[in-house]
Amino acid sequence: MALKPLMRYRLQSYKHDKSLHRIWDQVTILFEDDEKIVVANRKTKVIEGNGRIWYTREPSVSFFFKDCWYNVIAIIKPLGISYYCNLSSPVLYDEEAIKYIDYDLDIMVLPDFSYTILDQNEYLKHQRLMQYPEDLCDILKHELDNLIKRIEARKPPFEHELVQEYYQNFLKTGVKKNVERPKN
Fold first, then answer.
1. Is 119 within the bounds of a domain?
2. Of the listed 22, 42, 150, 181, which one is catalytic?
3. For the chain, how many structural domains are there in total?
4. Is residue 150 among the annotated active site residues?
5. Range of 54's domain?
């Protein structure tokens, strides 16, 4: 099923044990092809798996890959664009939402492209508790290495101009906050 550009959809992340991790109430589809889905949002309602609700502070453009085990959130701040990268399953879409499984390991990339790997202890804890299979751990290690190479080479989506272009297109659409999602 193809996503409709400029329409709002729900985004859901899960943990390996199939428990709900987080819901972004509405994201706007900017682009989709065979490799990725690109969405944007600002001041979006986020519901944590424990029910806590908060709203995003900075606008973002996010890249969800269909064949890579990570996604990238480009966060647009007054001092520059930073990137928050989640090791995750490839993205999928069903009638309910855009979905992926979050595998704990994250990378924070600053506007100067320096980066830090985050949440390694959380990954090890969940690897043990949720019994990540060895082949999954191998995939995640390989994808982490690929993601770092992509960051260091500044390959898309790690290009500030690309992110700005997507964000400007999002602003030009005039999409209002909290509009109705398409009915399936």
1. yes
2. 22
3. 1
4. no
5. 8-173
